[in-house]
Structures are given as structure tokens and as C-alpha cells.
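Summary for the steering committee. One of the milestones for this cycle was to obtain a three-dimensional model of the protein with zinc ion bound, which we needed before selecting residues for the alanine scan. The sequence and ligand used are listed below.
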Amino acid sequence: MDTWLFLIILAAIFIGWLLGRWQPFRKKSRGVENDQFSARYARGLNYLLEDDSDNAIKIFTDLIEINTETIEIHIALGNLFRSKGEVDRAIKVHQNLLARPNLTRRQRHMAIAELASDYLKAGLLDRAEKLYREMIELDADPIQAYHRLLELYITEKSWQEAVECAKKLYELGEPDAKVTYSQCLCEVAQQAIRSGNYRLARNSLDRAIEIDALCVRAGLLLIQLHLNSDNLPAAKRIFQRLTRESPEYMALYIDPARQIYLNREPRVYQQFLQQQYQRQQSTRLAIALLEHYARNDEIEKARQFLSDILQKSPSFEAFEFALRFLKSNPDQLGETWETLSAFLKTLQGKKSEFVCSRCGYESHTIQWMCPSCRNWAAMKPLKP
Ligand SMILES: [Zn+2]
């Protein structure tokens, strides 16, 4: 262990002891006690010199017991261990503290919270969970306890429990709880869809939208559910609402649009892509349109569109050669198509398409919880 760390701790204990001892209005009749203190202090120092820090800690923590006023120094001592990564020691110190009968209510609550943080850092999640539950029962900073519990359940991917915590925080009026609550409900829904429990999925998603009407993720999942059960009108309704209310997520609507319209109303699908491309010249939309034209054997349209893209978007420069080739050899389009679209896809694959509005983290796919700052629904498609 770092020597400096122990020196700081010793100084803290010693100052704490002096403060407790310095009581000018009291008769000085504590000579025996002082001698005992000095002897034990010396023994602790010896252990320290012999590099027996376990025993040293035991002695020094016992010394603090002499004076209940220094319990907060004791808590800080444990925190210091934790922040230095010595979690086992932090746990020992805070556990010792909790075993004492003479703590005030506030001190006990503080010690429980710190011990829970120790467990969390040590990866002893079930013990941390138990202590946070205890904090909630004792009404000891329950909001903080719910926040920590929520983090813990999210880490464990225990989504049902996470939903319970997020719900509590939402009811307590915590900022951001609305988004977290609906995102956790989406997680439950996704899990339910995987295990075939569509009823639970449906209920969770309905609730998610009730809580956060602009939850795009819940909308997208509901579209999938409706498509799976052949409820096309319902899928359409949500699709139209999403494109109207949250147009900034357009990149995520191409797939649902394909599933809803392509086979039944190919004209609507094409119009949709064209309209969106008018508003926003994104590579994804361009690829979808090109693929659509090619599939329908609209070679001339595809060729025109390609040339259009090349004019408007410099990122398609690489296609100039291919286009010149195609202009003089239009019969080759079918053969060249594979190469062209593969090239477009690599171009697309290299690009970050989503950016976190809170911390700037970029990603190729959407992450509903930003892996960098852990904010929910903070990722938005990048402007093309
Ligand atoms: Zn972020």
C-alpha cells in the first residue's frame, strides 16, 4: 500500500483524536486514557513499519472508537481506500463501523451508503443491492439509492427490476427519469419478443409510449409487432406518426417502410423514398432508392439518379468513373450493379451515422444507451 496514503490517514486519525480530546472546559482527568492511546498508537505504527497493514488498520480503526465524534473521519478513511482501489480494506473499515452500536442515525445511513458503494466497486452486486434496498426501507436518501439500484440493474441487464426503479424515480419527479423509464420498458419488450411473450411486449411498449410519447424506439418495436401479426393498418399508423413527429430519425424508417409498402404498394414506397431524399440527401436513402430502381429494372431512372447523386454529393466522386463507363455501355448496368452497390455499401460502412447529443460519441449503428456517457436516447442520426 502507498506510504503516503497511510500517512494521510494517520494524520486524519491523529487530528481527529486531538480535536476530540481538546475540551478546554472539562477537567483534565484523562491521563490514563491518554497513556493507553499512546501505547496503542505506537503499536499500530510498529505494525505499519513491519508492513502488517491489516493489523495496523485494526489498531487505528479501534483508536477512532475512543471518540465517536471522529466517525466521519472513519468513513472518509474507508472512502480513501476505495478510491485507491483497495476495496477489501474499504469494506472492512465500513463494516467495522456499521457493527458499532453508538452511531447516530445519519452516521449509520452514511456508512451503509458507502459500504454499498464498496460492494458495487468490488462487483459484489447482490450485496450492494441488499444495502440499497435497506437504504430505501430506512428512508436514507432513497432517491440516491434508487438511482444506484437502477444503474446496477442496467449493468446486470435485469430489465424488469430496472423498470421498477425507473418507475419510482419517474413518480418522484426526477429529471431524465421519463426517458430512462420508457427505454427500460423497451428493453423488457425486446426481451419478451425474443422469448415469444408478445403480450408482455405489447403492454410494455404501450406503456413506454404513454410515458414518453416521442419514444422512437418503442414506435419501431411496435411496428415490428404489428407486422408480425399482420396488422398492417396499425403498423402504418405508427410509421406515419414517427415520420411526422420525429423526422430526425429518418435513417431508421427505411426498413419499416420497405416492410410495410414495398410488396403491397411499391409506388408509395418509391414516393416515400423520393420525398425524403428531397428533404435530406442521405446515403442510406440514396442506396435504398438505387436498389429500388434496379430491382424494378428502371435502368434509365437509376442511371439518372446516380448522376444526380454525383452532382449533389461529393462523397460519391468515386462513382464518376463507373458512371462514365455506364453512359457509354448502358447494357453493362446489370453486371456493374453489384460492384457499384458493394462500393456504396463500403463507403457507408466506414461512416459514423449516429452521434450522441450529450457527449459527441459517434457510432455506425444506433445505441439506445450511449456507451460513452450512458445517457438514454441521446443518440441522433448525423446530418448528412
Ligand atoms: Zn454520450
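Key point for the committee: Confidence is low (pLDDT under 50) at residues 22-29.
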